[in-house]
## 1
Amino acid sequence: MSHLSWSDDLARESRLAGMLYLVIIIMGLGAEFGLRGPLVDLTDATGTAESILAAPGQFRLAIAADLVMALSDAGLAILLYLIFRNVAYGLALSAMVFRLIQTVLIAANLMALQTALMLLSSASDVSDAQALALVFLNLHGHGYDLGLVFFGVNNLMMGALIWRSKIFAKAFGAGLALAGFVYLIGSGLRFFALYLSAAFAPAYGVTVLAETAFCLRLLCQSPRR
């Protein structure tokens, strides 16, 4: 079957996928920029330590938000597979696997944040603890980008599935495919050309726009008679 034929069940799955996608966007951006971002400066170990210890609840809330995001991502991976399996079974299954790998990596990577908090909260040697905590915070950033490598591949696959589905506008597929390239390039820069990462950062706006647009499209899906 080369295209989707919407039923009540698939429409419900689409709307549920949209709701999970919305949770992922809100929790992911909220954790990174609203909660954790103001506390962490990877160029200042002492300042970061003082900020985290002054607001440990905020730091823990960021971890909780990321955990909710990961749980929602696992559910979304399964729902998108169910929605697109009749478009291209092998491609839909592969997309689910790559998204789940990303989810596992990001969830496991939260231990780096917890370790940093434990070091700062119970250290006897303050200066060493601050330096080591910053290493774990930096490790979290690298681990997150490692997960985004797999997510980038997932986005390319999802772009192809949407393009072939004949039910979603091809622009959504093109947007997700472009987002996939941004994730892959951005993660590559983090590992192999860190000095270029800051200049490339505005490109992530494309990913927010593309994913939010597809999220809203899923939420608006209704059965076709």
Note: The radius of gyration is 19 Å.
## 2
Amino acid sequence: MENLKIAIVVGSLRKESFNRHLANAIIQLAPTGVQFTFAEIGGLPLYNQDEDDHQAESVKKFKAQISTVDGVLFVTPEYNRSIPGVLKNALDHGSRPYGQNVWGKIPAAIIGISPSPVGTALAQQHLRGVLAALDMPTLAQPEMFLQMKEGFFEASGAISEASQQFVKGWLDRFLVWVTLNKKRA
């Protein structure tokens, strides 16, 4: 696998977030040559357009991190049938001020896990609309809505053998997507 740098944006701030566990487990499935880094969103201030001309240091650092990656993996829960506010806040910061959209042309994928039988389907659908507006080519198929059930994760934190190949196949498809669509200098 070609060397790829992928940012992971987890849409949950909860300490024991299923989605953070999923992100960590995905990292363990990655082939050699893929470097994942977490782009943390919990320390970003609430977006306020009045601050566009003097963005907080945390925003500048976040945008600088995103600008260096080949792809972005969004790992998000579903809150009230949509994306978490903290995730939308990070997306807004990255796209502003007008004309300085750090997300543009970076290939992306969305995955999520939830106790709900429909997983994170509605959140992912809403996120796809936002990512389209941000000009992020987003992996359309296969979609990955995971249900958190007992035994999904092993005691070590890895994805159980029963689901590992399924998630690994999706990850491989995402990495091909990034390779085919990453920004060219």
Note: The beta strands are 4-10, 34-38, 71-75, 108-114, 145-147.
## 3
Amino acid sequence: MTKPRIFIPHRIAESALALLGERCTLDYRDIEEKLDDAAFFAGLEQADGLMIYSRHKISADVLDRAPRLRIVSNIAVGYDNLDLNELTARGIMATNTPDVLTETTADLTFALLMAAARRIPEADRYVKDGRWNEWLPSLMLGKDVHGAVIGIVGMGRIGEAVARRAKGFGMRILYHNRTRKEEAERSLGAEYAGLDDLLRRSDYVVVMTPLTPETTGLIGERELAFMKPDAILINTSRGRVVDEQALIHALSERRIAGAGLDVYAVEPVSRDNPLLSMPNVVTLPHIGSATRETRENMALKAARNMLAGLFGERPENLLNPSVFS
């Protein structure tokens, strides 16, 4: 029996590679950089399975070049890079890797909140630039986190993990979600709020919702106008959930105090993006899940999803179950 062929166009954890190699033929590229289109399309031509990070966009045009493809295993919890309707129409399974990155991404989210609140990157530059000549009472005044109000927009797994951290800081927790999370309300003391109400009351607004047609531009000019002048916006979900131009205007006009961003409308972010020159904005290079342990666990979960799909079992994290049924 011919082994199924998996195309992996970038470096993944060796443990995941070994797991796949036991049962499949691998077309593996041990590189960090994104393949150019010609090399990527060449690899797709003979692939039964494709394992990718979310930087690869899988559209109808791409799928036209993959006549044998049976499954796409995304090494990410988000899957807005996948045209799920097109994959389903062609009978191609799609999977993602939830759960394993929840706590790691929540760590990063709360670290970003703390860094923006206490102006940590700005203070670090101040010292390293040799500008710290004396202690002053007003030097690098920040904003308290303990006892403040945090508003979480999108109370999924990661949102709840952020709320657990906020509870440890004695924060009052508001949340907005498509559905009420009664268990979170009981265990965390979280309060459900409409989006406008949450924006008005929160000292920190943390955006945790996935990118969908409904959430694209969810936080725009109108929504930012509801926020307090001393509030800080944190986004570790997807860049396009926030209207980036509206955010730039709100920050430059000091209608909100600051922002902490791990994601952007276009990635990598352009060097001339005004956000990069704003001292009240902390900017990270999309590293929400970037720990060695978590990236290995993500790759292993993606590998298990891949093997299940290729060998007739239902993948644990199947995004389009109608294809399997």
Note: Residues 292-310 form the longest helix (19 residues).
## 4
Amino acid sequence: MNNHFGITFNGKHSYRDFGLRVLEKHIGNPSKIKRKERVPFSNKIYDFSSVYGGQEYEERHLTYVFNLRDYDKVNLAIKKIEILNWLMQPNEKVQLLDDYIPGYYFLAEVEEAPDFDELRFRGVFTVNFTAYPFKIGEYEEGNDLWDPFNFLLDVAQITDFEVAGTKTVTLYNPGASVVKPKMKASSPMEIIKDGITYNIPVGESQSHDFILHQGENKMTIKGIGKISFYFRKELI
């Protein structure tokens, strides 16, 4: 691997800030959470995994093995302390960016103490991260950035709408998971989606009931003013 390759976690880069070189890494994939019930006296099995809007997934695990070198044993010990505190400081999942996965980030936390195998003038850190199941898009949907646009994974779309009465619009969720968008409305509005009416207050809001399914989401907006939707795609 490129010696300068690394991860950005807890606001610092593994190589640029600590001189850690990545020896190897493993990006684990999340497993589905299945909720099944068998019909008594039958071979029929019902799957209720998506009954609340989308398939659930287990957390995913990321492992990075770093090489740390210093010919001064005292400096090596100090660096070890500094690195351990950098990794263990967050008490919740925070952004982790991998240089080789541009355009996306993980939400991850180090829950178990990293393993440090110390040799004469160097040490090997094995760090296990517990992460949110999905990679999250670095840029919000509706951005007009051309350079990072991926023709295989991205969708060019409008997420800001001027409404004068009634307007039918479509939002696309190009991810692998349902998302709950944040909304910002200049005046109170109504959104009718899948036969359900949602009341949107003035200002910023987010509803746990209003979700965007994978793919095309058609809806009708009623009101007068401007409404904007903010969300990022989530991919496995």
Note: The radius of gyration is 23 Å.
